[in-house]
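User: quick one, sequence for these tokens?
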């Protein structure tokens, strides 16, 4: 049986260049907590969401208006037994013009149904791509995770 990586496609009424720019604006659609560069080859950035998930990504391929690929170099989930999930997987954004529209194919290569996090992670990716990234592309405003505020402890 073939491995089934998570993938989702969206089609938008705009240019490949606009989609490419939105994909690179990771703080605009995934999380305001992103630290590091997100738009050049070999840039590395970190993501974290509360104490639930943190990861480090490295941009390993970038072709203007065509493709962006991240390598997951480190990952932590507080809800999985297998702490190696996601490590070494890749996240790919493939952009192609289709007539007057642009198609974005998002694939998390290595995020497979056998993973403990598959249901949670695939649902989260679908939400970020199909809603937040789509809205960033079409309206200029995504719905990323907000920056966590520091609470003063008395």
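Assistant:
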């Amino acid at each position: 049986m073939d491995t089934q990586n998570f993938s989702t496609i969206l089609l938008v009424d705009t240019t490949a260049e606009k989609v490419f720019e939105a994909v690179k604006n990771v703080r605009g659609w995934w999380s305001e907590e992103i630290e590091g560069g997100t738009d050049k080859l070999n840039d590395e950035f970190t993501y974290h969401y509360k104490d639930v998930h943190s990861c480090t990504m490295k941009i390993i391929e970038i072709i203007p208006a065509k493709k962006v690929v991240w390598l997951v170099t480190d990952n932590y989930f507080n809800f999985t037994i297998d702490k190696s999930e996601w490590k070494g997987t890749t996240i790919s954004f493939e952009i192609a013009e289709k007539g007057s529209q642009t198609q974005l194919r998002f694939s998390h290569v290595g995020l497979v149904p056998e993973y403990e996090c598959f249901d949670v992670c695939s649902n989260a990716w679908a939400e970020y791509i199909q809603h937040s990234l789509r809205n960033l592309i079409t309206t200029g405003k995504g719905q990323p995770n907000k920056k966590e505020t520091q609470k003063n402890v008395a």
